[in-house]
Amino acid sequence: MAFSARLSLLALLVVPCLHSLDAAEQTTLSTFRTDSGMVLVPVTVTDHNGKTVNGLKQENFTIFDERVPAPIVAFAGDDSPCSVGLVLDTSGSMRGTLGDAKSVADAFFKTANPEDEFLLLTVSTKPESVSGFTKDIAELEKNVAYTSAGGMTALIDTVYLGLSRMRTAKSSRRALLIISDGMDNYSRYSKSELMRVALEADVQIYSIIINSGDTGSTGAVPFRPAMVGKPIAMARQNQGRNFLEELSDKTGGLSFHAGNPGEARDAVVKAGQAIRNVYVIGYRPPDSDTSGKWHRIRVKADVPHTSVTARTGYYAR
Question: In CATH, what class is 82-275?
């Protein structure tokens, strides 16, 4: 199937969902479920170096809904335009590493395709929406260059705002990229409130975690919670990093740790490739559950030595 035909198919699947939810739930985000019973799952496949694996076909994938295999009825795997919200932490906790964070943001913009659009938000005492969606990369780079570090850290509130603003995105592929050290000391929303909204939003969340020291990461290889055993009692900073890891993992994005500028730039290039080279799988759940309960999803690929990343589930309509 040609790329344009595949994109048209996905548009037909997504648009009815967004229309019906706007009518029924004016104050909520676009959700992962559809009225027609179709569930769309963005999937990223990476190798052991964290590089995106392209060229896979529908037959390479198997998807499970509550451990029950589900037939795949729609599939697309081409690079297509994306709407990306960039959340840049400019709070006081980033004073020593903001220069690195700015370099990461600039490197990310250089991975953009001409049809991509971007939204820029900054984290400080309160969230600030620096720009609406735009394709003007030069203006975004100028805005990033002019930012300075200071204030408290309302990271959770800023991510929450970013998810809300993603409702105005033009592309069906939507992602948030968070560049932060993970600290939060001034948000009104709780982690659990943000997690609930993130799980219902059709947005993948990627994070570049700027580290001040070694946390057991493997550099610019996608971090997964199972890679490091974490103690029960942890510092606030580690709690924030853990939360970003979990947020990315559960929404089908990737999380990277970066201990130096080189690792950070390598990580953001890989994140950019992953955002733009997502396989989208459409399937119908094995049953017509309307209880509103959480359904667990698992996606497998029959390609050796690769890792498959997808959102962990959805809420039944």
Answer: alpha beta
